[in-house]
């Protein structure tokens, strides 16, 4: 059938275009500089070497970059999940004056491009003395309007009878939030946590703006800066890229459906 | 329930959003009306001076033009390519699912990594692209150094990174189309292409709007890819609004001027969004 042939031809070309760069990257991190220059048309190393993976530690402040990335993405994600779900609990379950205004303000922050606030936030951090600090990297990003929105939608779908049963047993709101709602919201927690972590782990502009000192840089900023100036050894940079990709790749293969659910409803990635 | 309770629950989030998003939005507008420099003794009021300066700044004109070209070209190609993939890979068998994962994977890789890897792939000395074209006797092209080719190359890499995202969203949209639509059309004797034209595409319109919208806004804000691959060069031929804003604000410390650029970006985002909503609604009427 010609349509079928056409279809697999199209998908096949697409697959080659997607997979070859990924294979080339991973293979390239095991190649020598001489191999890369001598056989630019090659995909697989002529001789395997760990030189790139050793160079990552000696030519870059890699441990520091990796540690900063783990702290920045890890702590920020944990705080975001906590703060967003608390805020969403109030918006979904409590009746109070000003609730609609609060929700509306959250939505406004979703619509304005991040770049609009970047410069004033930089000035704020400058005055607070928070540039080149962990609190400067973490605190401004420790909540996300998208997370609040997603948690709120999810909480509204949880039957109210469950809260009421807990209330009859004498539970307060803090207890209901922590013991009833959060345990039921695991899919929402997984989605918000994975998307936030990926987003923060991959972010370049924010760490670049907050940290000018190499000591406080994260992996993407470090690779971008060192790739531009000091390190000219391609295998080292490719090895750095592969290592920085690893946690996200593992999370992707273990929890793909949460990525798909979150990304395809929010566009956030 | 005490009155303070809801505000205790919302406190951390609202405090952060207030201090680091809402108030900065106001401040950003305020800065854009001043000749504002971080740490300077005086920040003189210039009214719309920064905006008129932008209009006459050739670098701004180029950055705005590049941003619009990147956005229009990326979005058009992405939606076409993504739709093709989605139609080819809708079924739930293992082969489709594995292939979909492969296409989706670049979505979760950082733009920094994607940019760096493609910069190497396109390098005339070590890159696979140059190596293969030389092996075929075509000679190596210096993609990112050429004023004519750098921008299309950036667009290509942007498409490479995001095609899987468009595909995955459209697959979800395709699956949501009720099977009865197809059965009814088949009873009327519709053939495959007619099904596509009269059933699938109209039913897919809301999803298409969503995905077009997201891809457009992301392309308008493109930074990482350009910063890593070309730094805006050669000779500003790939400079975007955000790379210009970053340079003005954080390398040249022209804070007020950069804030004005960010407001232009915001206005462009709003205009494009309204325009898209209009187009899609207009089509709904026919």
UniProtKB/TrEMBL annotation, chain A:
The chain crosses the membrane at residues 7-27, 70-92, 101-122, 134-155, 176-197, 235-255. Gene3D superfamilies: MetI-like (1.10.3720.10). It is found in: Cell membrane. Keywords: Cell membrane, Membrane, Transmembrane, Transmembrane helix, Transport. It holds the Pfam family BPD_transp_1. It is a multi-pass membrane protein. Residues 66-255 form the ABC transmembrane type-1 domain. It comes from the Bacteria. Its main location: membrane. InterPro entries: MetI-like (IPR000515), MetI-like_sf (IPR035906). Belongs to the binding-protein-dependent transport system permease family. This is Carbohydrate ABC transporter permease.
Automatic annotation (TrEMBL), chain B:
This is Carbohydrate ABC transporter permease. Residues 64-276 form the ABC transmembrane type-1 domain. InterPro entries: ABC_transporter_permease, MetI-like, MetI-like_sf. It is a multi-pass membrane protein. The lineage of its organism: Bacteria, Bacillati, Actinomycetota, Actinomycetes, Micromonosporales. It is found in: Cell membrane. Belongs to the binding-protein-dependent transport system permease family. Keywords: Cell membrane, Membrane, Transmembrane, Transmembrane helix, Transport. Gene3D superfamilies: MetI-like (1.10.3720.10). The chain crosses the membrane at residues 7-26, 68-90, 102-121, 149-174, 195-217, 257-280. It comes from Paractinoplanes globisporus. CDD domains: TM_PBP2. It comes from the Bacteria. It holds the Pfam family BPD_transp_1.
């Amino acid at each position: 059938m010609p349509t079928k042939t056409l279809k697999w031809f199209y998908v096949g070309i697409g697959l080659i275009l997607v997979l070859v760069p990924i294979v080339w990257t991973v293979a390239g991190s095991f190649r020598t500089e001489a191999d890369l220059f001598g056989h630019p048309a090659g995909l697989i190393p002529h001789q395997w070497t760990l030189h790139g993976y050793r160079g990552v530690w000696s030519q870059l402040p890699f441990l520091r970059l990796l540690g900063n990335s783990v702290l920045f993405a890890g702590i920020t994600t944990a705080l975001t999940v906590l703060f967003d779900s608390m805020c969403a609990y109030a918006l979904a379950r409590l009746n109070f004056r000003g609730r609609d205004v609060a929700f509306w303000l959250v939505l406004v922050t979703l619509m304005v491009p991040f770049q609009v606030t970047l410069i004033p936030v930089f000035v704020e951090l400058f005055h607070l003395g928070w540039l080149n600090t962990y609190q400067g990297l973490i605190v401004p990003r420790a909540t996300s309007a998208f997370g609040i929105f997603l948690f709120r939608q999810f909480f509204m779908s949880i039957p109210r009878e469950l809260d009421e049963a807990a209330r009859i047993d004498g539970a307060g709101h803090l207890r209901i939030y922590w013991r009833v709602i959060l345990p039921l919201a695991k899919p929402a927690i997984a989605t918000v946590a994975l998307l936030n972590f990926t987003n923060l782990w991959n972010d370049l502009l924010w760490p670049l703006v907050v940290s000018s000192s190499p000591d406080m840089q994260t992996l993407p900023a470090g690779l971008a800066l060192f790739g531009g100036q000091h390190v000219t050894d391609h295998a080292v940079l490719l090895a750095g890229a592969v290592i920085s990709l690893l946690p996200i790749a593992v999370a992707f293969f273990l929890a793909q459906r949460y990525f798909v659910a979150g990304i395809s409803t929010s566009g956030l990635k | 329930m005490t009155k303070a309770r809801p505000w205790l629950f919302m406190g951390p989030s609202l405090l952060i959003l207030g201090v680091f998003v809402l108030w900065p939005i106001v401040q950003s507008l305020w800065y854009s009306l001043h000749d504002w420099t971080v740490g300077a003794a005086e920040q003189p009021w210039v009214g719309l001076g920064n905006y008129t300066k932008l209009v006459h700044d050739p670098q701004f004109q180029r950055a705005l033009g590049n941003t619009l070209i990147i956005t229009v070209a990326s979005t058009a190609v992405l939606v076409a390519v993504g739709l093709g993939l989605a139609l080819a890979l809708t079924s739930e068998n293992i082969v489709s699912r594995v292939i979909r994962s492969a296409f989706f994977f670049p979505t979760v890789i950082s733009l920094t990594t994607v940019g760096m890897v493609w910069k190497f792939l396109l390098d005339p000395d070590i890159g696979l692209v140059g190596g293969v074209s030389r092996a075929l006797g075509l000679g190596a092209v210096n993609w990112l150094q050429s004023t004519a080719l750098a921008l299309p190359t950036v667009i290509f890499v942007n498409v490479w990174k995001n095609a899987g995202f468009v595909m995955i969203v459209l697959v979800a949209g395709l699956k949501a189309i009720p099977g009865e639509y197809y059965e009814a059309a088949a009873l009327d004797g519709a053939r495959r292409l007619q099904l596509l034209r009269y059933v699938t595409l109209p039913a897919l319109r809301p999803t298409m709007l969503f995905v077009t919208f997201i891809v457009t806004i992301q392309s308008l804000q493109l930074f990482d890819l350009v910063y890593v691959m070309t730094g805006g060069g050669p000779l500003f031929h790939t400079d975007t609004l955000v790379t210009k804003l970053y340079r003005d604000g954080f390398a040249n410390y022209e804070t007020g001027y950069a804030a004005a650029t960010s407001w232009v970006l915001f206005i462009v985002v709003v205009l494009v969004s309204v325009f898209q909503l209009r187009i899609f609604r207009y089509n709904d009427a026919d």
